[in-house]
Write a structure and sequence with these properties.
151 residues; alpha+beta; Quinone Oxidoreductase, Chain A, domain 1; 22% helix; globular
C-alpha cells in the first residue's frame, strides 16, 4: 500500500546563529500527485550540505532563499549542478571494467568510506550544524525512512 502522508520540514523562522530545532516545523501533508512528465519518489535519506545553511538566509545568492513556511529541502532535488573535472560518463565505454575493479577492491577491503548518518527528519536541523562544527565524517546523511520490507 503506498504512503498517503508526506513528512515535510518547513522553515518556520530565519535562524540566528546556530540552527535550532524550532527554526523548522515538521508537518504532515498529503503525498502529491504526479503531473504529466513527473514522478513521485519516496526518499529514504536526505543529504545535507553547507549550502542548506545559506538557503535559509534572506540574502541575495545564486538561488532564491527558502521562504518562511516553504519546504526546506525540496530545492535540493529540483536543481542541477555543473561539475567540471573527472566525469564518470566521460569513461562510459570502460564502465563494466570499472565496476568489476571497484567491486573487487570493496570485497578486498581496499576501498573504505565513512558516512555520518543521523536518524530522523526531525533531527535534520541539528544535523546541519554538524557541517559547521566538524561533527561529521564523510558524507552527512539524514535517514528519513526505512526501506520497504520485501514481501
Amino acid at each position: 500500500m503506498p504512503d498517503t502522508v508526506n513528512r515535510e520540514l518547513r522553515l518556520r523562522r530565519r535562524p540566528v546563529g546556530r540552527i535550532a530545532p524550532d527554526d523548522f516545523e515538521l508537518v504532515r501533508a498529503p503525498v502529491p500527485t504526479a503531473g504529466p512528465g513527473e514522478a513521485v519518489v519516496r526518499n529514504l535519506y536526505l543529504s545535507l550540505d553547507p549550502t542548506n545553511r545559506i538557503w535559509v538566509e534572506d540574502v541575495e545568492q545564486y538561488m532564491p532563499p527558502v521562504q518562511l513556511g516553504d519546504v526546506m529541502f525540496d530545492t535540493i532535488l529540483m536543481k542541477r549542478l555543473r561539475v567540471q573535472g573527472f566525469i564518470v560518463i566521460d569513461y562510459l565505454p570502460r564502465f563494466a571494467e570499472a565496476i568489476t575493479q571497484l567491486a573487487q577492491w570493496m570485497a578486498e577491503g581496499k576501498l573504505k568510506h565513512r558516512d555520518t548518518i543521523v536518524d530522523g527528519l526531525e533531527r535534520a536541523p541539528e544535523a546541519l550544524n554538524l557541517l559547521f562544527d566538524g561533527g561529521n565524517v564523510g558524507k552527512l546523511i539524514v535517514k528519513i525512512a526505512d526501506p520497504p520490507r520485501k514481501l
